[in-house]
Amino acid sequence: MVWTAIEYLRDAQNRSFKIKIYNKCRQCESSVVQQIEENERLMKLRSDYNERVVLNHQELPWVESSEPGVTRRMLERDGDEVARATSIVKYAPGSKFASHTHDFGEEILVLDGVFSDETGEYATGNYIMNPPGSSHAPYSTTGCTLFVKLRHLGPEQTQREVVDTTTAPWLQGIAAGLHVMPLMRQGSGSTLVRWAPQTTFSPHRHYGGEEIFVVRGTFEDEHGRYPEGSWIRSPHLSLHQPFSKEGCIIFVKTGHLPIPA
Ligand SMILES: [Fe+2]
Ligand SMILES: [Fe+2]
């Protein structure tokens, strides 16, 4: 068990622990066990898709990643074989992340700053979908904050998609006061929805669930009020009647959550 946990530790810690554990340091063994528990906790975080989850990332702590200067707030993580994760990721100015391949794809929305990789520079408001099998080495010269969904895409997503949401057109939605901007058009898709102040939508049920990240303003329904930075994951067949008194912009995915057998 101890040696399994050591695999999770960062290199410097790893070497130090190995030496001490060789010397039978009980305190180190107990630290490693704590690290196991912490890793297990992190690998399964809000991963029961049958439960409704509401949180605001601004209330969560920043947790170090494996790369210096890159920190994250974990919204959900399922560390099973097909690991999914949704996070807010912050790059300090001048930080970078090692080159990596997205086995099951990646979606990124730049919340502030400028995010870069070898394909270009993406300022606040840019959306990027990197399909399964793609790879890149991201960095940020001036720093940035991102909303990131990882390892949740499949064979229906084959083409990289990039949308600059500050310049792409808004389309009329199916109710007065609603405008939509398609982001990922492949598979179940991702959409930005703009609510004019005092807009109400009809009651509806979510087949395959619904996930919302509030980019700006305040979104509401009969269950609560969700200011900027809120993340709401509603399970398969959940029901609500959303509205917005002050107006808002939300990132929305529907029909993408596992359907219970
Ligand atoms: Fe990536
Ligand atoms: Fe909904």
Structure notes:
The protein is mainly β. The protein folds into three domains: 2-45, no CATH class; 53-164, Sandwich (Jelly Rolls), CATH 2.60.120.10; 171-254, Jelly Rolls. It contains three helices and 25 strands. It has helices at residues 2-6, 11-22, 26-43, and strands at 44-45, 53-56, 63-64, 70-78, 84-91, 95-96, 100-101, 106-117, 120-123, 126-130, 135-136, 139-140, 144-150, 161-164, 171-172, 178-182, 191-195, 199-200, 204-206, 210-221, 224-227, 230-234, 238-240, 243-244, 248-254. Strands 1, 3, 4, 5, 8, 9, 10, 13 and 14 form a nine-stranded antiparallel sheet that branches. Strands 2, 15, 16, 17, 20, 21, 22 and 25 form an eight-stranded antiparallel sheet that branches. A hairpin with an 8-residue loop joins strand 16 (178-182) and strand 17 (191-195). The longest helix is centred in the N-terminal third of the chain and has 18 residues, at 26-43. Mean pLDDT is 89; it is low at 1-8. It binds fe (ii) ion (2 copies). One fe (ii) ion binds at residues 204, 206, 210, 240, 242.
Annotate the secondary structure layout.
Elements lengths: L1 H5 L4 H12 L3 H18 E2 L7 E4 L6 E2 L5 E9 L5 E8 L3 E2 L3 E2 L4 E12 L2 E4 L2 E5 L4 E2 L2 E2 L3 E7 L10 E4 L6 E2 L5 E5 L8 E5 L3 E2 L3 E3 L3 E12 L2 E4 L2 E5 L3 E3 L2 E2 L3 E7 L7
Antiparallel strand pairs: 1-4, 2-22, 3-4, 4-5, 5-13, 6-12, 7-11, 8-9, 8-10, 8-13, 10-14, 15-16, 16-17, 17-25, 18-24, 19-23, 20-21, 20-22, 20-25
